[in-house]
């Protein structure tokens, strides 16, 4: 395939604001599970949506592994350890919801990589303290939130866009808690999340 | 010294003459911040994660990061990444290369210019 010649439509300001608004939706992991099942049956989703969901699943696999590394490192003390376990449970719920939706769309959910592969890719060998663990987690959570917000316009089925917004809200919640524990300043300007 | 990379201005011809559409200038420092905030959920410079490693991506053949399994669309692509092509890709990857798995769009032209400027420095 040579370089495509298609024209790319611009995303206008109205579109950007509507993306930001989706992040305000309430979140409940059990709700995501139910919603994804209903949406997968809606019939308007496409293989492209399944591909995007599969990328998201890969991201959730990695998040689960990262929290596993953190929880098993012996570096986390309560209450940070409890938060890590809780956040990992959220990511497991995300994973299960995504797997269910991908299967119902006829896709094949991606498998997780090995823990050794995750450890190498995430630079786990450099982690020496609780702060290092939390800083890695905060970075991944912020990246995940922005990833979910950034794929919203690409879904063919708007119901999946709504789910992406809800998943992003979970990640922002995690990032906010982690940033607070780390003593990081809150963003000084609005609309820092999203692409 | 803050390094700034110029992106090439695109032009479009019309009957009344030549209309120039200036692309925003990319800032490497801001680009690193954009990369950390918006891209690092899936990508790293030196490791294949959810997405491929990015070091050296500008000038690299599409779909050729060692060890990464690409979609058929990227695997079959026969061109190399330039700043201009990355800008179109990041605007809407599924429109630029239908069949690609990446759905992430970086809507802000300035953010795209910044992150591309940053990636151009990651040799």
List keywords for this structure.
heterodimer, A: 195 residues, mainly alpha, Ferritin, B: 123 residues, alpha+beta, two-stranded antiparallel sheet, two-stranded antiparallel ribbon, 35% helix, 11% strand, globular
Shape of chain A: globular
Rg for CA atoms of chain B = 15 Å
**Estimated helix fraction of chain B:** 25-40%
Low-confidence runs of chain B (pLDDT<50, min 5 residues)? 1-19
Strand content of chain A: under 5%
Average predicted local confidence, pLDDT of chain A: 82
Beta percentage of chain B is: 5-15%
Task: Report the span from N to C terminus of chain B.
Answer: 19 Å
- Taken from the alpha-carbon principal axes, the silhouette of chain B is globular
Rg of chain A: 17 Å
Identify the quaternary structure here.
heterodimer
**What's the count of strands of chain A?**
0
Output the helix-strand order of chain B: EEEEHHHHH
- Give the class of chain B from helix and strand content and strand pairing: alpha+beta
The level 1 CATH classification of chain A is Mainly Alpha
Q: How many helices of chain A? A: 7
Largest sheet report of chain A: none
Kindly report the name of the CATH homologous superfamily of chain A: Ferritin, core subunit, four-helix bundle
Give an overview of the whole structure:
The complex is a heterodimer of chains A (195) and B (123). Chain A has one domain: Ferritin, core subunit, four-helix bundle (Ferritin), CATH 1.20.1260. Helices cover 65% and strands 0% of the residues of chain A. Chain A is built from 7 helices and no strands. In chain A, helix 3 (47-72) packs antiparallel against helix 4, helix 3 (47-72) runs antiparallel to helix 6 (130-151) and helix 4 (80-104) packs antiparallel against helix 7 (158-182). The longest helix of chain A is centred in the first third of the chain and has 26 residues, at 47-72. The two termini of chain A are 28 Å apart. Chain B has 123 residues and is an alpha+beta fold. Chain B is built from 5 helices and 4 strands. Chain B has helices at residues 28-39, 72-76, 83-91, 93-96, 109-121; strands at residues 4-5, 10-14, 17-21, 26-27. In chain B, a hairpin with a 2-residue loop joins strand 2 (10-14) and strand 3 (17-21). The relative contact order of chain B is 0.22.
